[in-house]
């Protein structure tokens, strides 16, 4: 089977909009593979740290990215389980420091080029749900379905704040709000694959919706 004949749902949107949770639930419902593309940049940040490769060492970024061995395993509850070289690295990639570093690496063309081949390899039968920021616009421009989730920065900050408080972490809501706005700005203004809906994507505002309601809307769009 040609890879282009394998169906893809490209589920894009900014940080904290709920695309990871929605993507996992849709993937489990459809029994498709799942790609948390945002985790790849976090994993790259971890791998770069382990290898002693800095942000300015662009001559090393592409080879490092292409050599990563990553698996994304959807979970019944919570975030996907992420494996690097077969080892669970969830606790390392889910902290705010790693997210900030990953966002900085994501602006570097050599990193994005190196991870592109890795992402394309997730397209396997019977289908793929890929969540990220440029799945529909760059990575899978031929995706059968493209959905772009949105929500205000204040709503997303409150969601993230509640998630972290549930984990027993001491966090500041104003600091989270500022961090989300800054990340949105970097994602929109980067020169490579800026954050924006693909021209043929359906935009869904999740601000007043529960996860179950968003999942239902996504499945209805797929059925149509």
Q: Strand sequence of the main sheet, in spatial order?
A: 2-6-1-7-8
Shape: globular
CATH class placement = Alpha Beta
Q: Count the strands?
A: 8
- Structurally, the number of domains stands at 1
Helix content: 40-55%
Beta-strand percent range: 15-25%
Number of helices: 10
What does this structure look like?
The chain has a single domain, classed as Rossmann fold. It has helices at residues 19-30, 37-51, 58-66, 90-93, 96-105, 109-120, 135-139, 153-166, 173-189, 211-223; strands at residues 8-12, 33-36, 70-73, 81-84, 87-88, 128-132, 145-150, 202-205. The two termini are 25 Å apart. It has a five-stranded parallel β-sheet. A three-stranded antiparallel β-sheet has the order 3-4-5, with helices on one face. The protein has ten helices and eight strands. α1 crosses α10 (211-223), α3 (58-66) packs parallel to α6 and α8 (153-166) packs across α9 (173-189). The protein is α/β, with parallel strands linked by helices and 224 residues long. 38% of the residues are buried.
